[in-house]
């Protein structure tokens, strides 16, 4: 059983490069409501503890693994409760080679952030388009 995915959302981005200008793009991320966060936290805790149960039967390693899974489950529980949003990826036009790129980001890598173009290896500064974000907030 997988963790709940949350609601998909998008945010307008600028791909900036000091020498070559700016390209447009979109940041894809997921938003978790309170119910999703609680479900994810409980499932993480249960998964971690279930993995620890078979380790209790192995005498040599149970002294290390049981406390690790017990504490690790609690840490994962708290992290999942605090996670309101999660970045998936950024897609847009690289201003250096003028091609479309799909950049995988870490779940906590929110703009503004520096990344490298996966195709031409140039540095890009990802910036959120604040004007579009303010318009979207005014609609909701």
Description:
The protein has a 6-stranded antiparallel beta sheet, covered by helices on one side. The longest helix is centred in the N-terminal third of the chain and has 22 residues, at 34-55. It has helices at residues 34-55, 62-82, 130-139, and strands spanning 7-17, 21-31, 85-93, 100-104, 113-116, 123-128. It is built from 3 helices and 6 strands, in the order ββααββββα. The chain starts with 6 loop residues before the first strand and ends with a helix. Helix 1 runs antiparallel to helix 2 (62-82).
In short:
The chain is built from three helices and six strands, in the order ββααββββα. It is α+β, with helices and mostly antiparallel strands.
Could you give the topology of this structure?
Layout: E1 7-17, E2 21-31, H1 34-55, H2 62-82, E3 85-93, E4 100-104, E5 113-116, E6 123-128, H3 130-139
Antiparallel strand pairs: 1-2, 1-6, 2-3, 3-4, 5-6
